[in-house]
Automatic annotation (TrEMBL):
<dbReference type="InterPro" id="IPR046373">
    <property type="entry name" value="Acyl-CoA_Oxase/DH_mid-dom_sf"/>
</dbReference>
<dbReference type="InterPro" id="IPR037069">
    <property type="entry name" value="AcylCoA_DH/ox_N_sf"/>
</dbReference>
<dbReference type="GO" id="GO:0016712">
    <property type="term" value="F:oxidoreductase activity, acting on paired donors, with incorporation or reduction of molecular oxygen, reduced flavin or flavoprotein as one donor, and incorporation of one atom of oxygen"/>
</dbReference>
<dbReference type="InterPro" id="IPR009100">
    <property type="entry name" value="AcylCoA_DH/oxidase_NM_dom_sf"/>
</dbReference>
<dbReference type="GO" id="GO:0033539">
    <property type="term" value="P:fatty acid beta-oxidation using acyl-CoA dehydrogenase"/>
</dbReference>
<dbReference type="Pfam" id="PF02771">
    <property type="entry name" value="Acyl-CoA_dh_N"/>
</dbReference>
<feature type="domain" description="Acyl-CoA dehydrogenase/oxidase N-terminal">
    <location>
        <begin position="25"/>
        <end position="111"/>
    </location>
</feature>
<comment type="similarity">
    <text>Belongs to the HpaH/HsaA monooxygenase family.</text>
</comment>
<dbReference type="InterPro" id="IPR036250">
    <property type="entry name" value="AcylCo_DH-like_C"/>
</dbReference>
<dbReference type="GO" id="GO:0005737">
    <property type="term" value="C:cytoplasm"/>
</dbReference>
<dbReference type="GO" id="GO:0050660">
    <property type="term" value="F:flavin adenine dinucleotide binding"/>
</dbReference>
<feature type="domain" description="Acyl-CoA dehydrogenase C-terminal">
    <location>
        <begin position="243"/>
        <end position="380"/>
    </location>
</feature>
<dbReference type="GO" id="GO:0003995">
    <property type="term" value="F:acyl-CoA dehydrogenase activity"/>
</dbReference>
<dbReference type="InterPro" id="IPR013107">
    <property type="entry name" value="Acyl-CoA_DH_C"/>
</dbReference>
<protein>
    <submittedName>
        <fullName>Monooxygenase</fullName>
    </submittedName>
</protein>
<dbReference type="InterPro" id="IPR050741">
    <property type="entry name" value="Acyl-CoA_dehydrogenase"/>
</dbReference>
<dbReference type="InterPro" id="IPR013786">
    <property type="entry name" value="AcylCoA_DH/ox_N"/>
</dbReference>
Amino acid sequence: MTIQNNQNLSLGAHYEQVAGKFRAIFQRIAEGALEREKNRILPYEPIQWLKQAGFGAVRVPVAFGGDGVSQRQLFQLLIELAKADSNVVQALRGHFAFVEDRLNAHKTEPQTLWFERFVKGDLVGNAWTEIGNVEIGDVATRVTESQSGNLVVNGQKYYSTGTIFADWIDLFAFDETTNQHVIAAVSTQVEGIHIVDDWDGFGQKTTGSGTLKIDNVQIARDHILPFQERFKYQTAFYQVVHLATLAGIAQNAVEVFTHEVRKRTRIFSHGNAELVRNDAQILQVIGKASAQAYAAEAIALSTADALDQAYLSHFQNDENTELQANDSAELASSQGQVVISELVLNLTTELFNALGASASTTEKQLDRFWRNARVVSSHNPLIYKQKVIGDWVVNQAPLPYVWQIGNSPVLNQKEIAA
């Protein structure tokens, strides 16, 4: 593959050198994770530590002050971070997707300003989904022109993951002045931005995934980005963040349950050893879970390789090659989701067989691994992923790069008829 201006691309770095900059921070994050989980404390400090250390710029090319890591290396870092606290990775998901979009946009338009912002520490939150009476295919958040001639944004979002910690918002909207769907890159520091921490999920509690209200927020034209120009492998990228999160959850669960087994002194009269740590059946439980966690990481990183190929193909100027690479990335991420979700949900349940009823105490929060994995695995329904994979395999049906969720139009028709 021949690519021009390699110095402007992020093709990979020395992983241990890059990871070494952040591992002490990951450890600090891990030390407070249980307390944040028990008391639903949002990770403002941990995210600030990462900001200050330049974690949000690891994918920015070296020529612009970043680390230039590949996507495989990015997701390897995210697995390490998810092992420390999976909520933090989820909160940064929108940021790294926006960075990836700007990396792709750099092919045709210099993104120096955004790269400088990322290197400075700026983070981007996500705000795409609307709830309430919004029909599928529609978006109520709008860009309009005010009477004074300024462009303004109005709307409300839910699942605005990470926005409460961010400097910018990756906001999906409809631009009435150009009649197209857009991404509005809105500062969180301007008047008219209201962020509410009302996410009430039973897992991933501290990701800042609540309500965002945008009230007459002014925006410059150059911060309105046509959605049709969004990077093509975005759905796969978003999904692989989930896969990395799940892999980190799995590793953390195995580590914590192993620690509990090692220190356990109570045994059952019909067990197999005088100490739980020597009981063959308990070792079997831990061994299987460890193997499942290993497989989850291996699959996640393999899907990341497909994303790297999609990124590189964008700069090769061959539409067919790029299409094939994007199809491969979408398929790999979908297949990975199906397998990793089942692996991690299984291991975070079966690990309880290694301990007694005391493992259910809320003080230890051992259920957090399953709860967090269950919520992450619910974002993109597994049954639909299985269906689109099967349709591709059997019928070569196109894979859905972009999909939406919203109210069924049938419901509105019934209301009108009534």
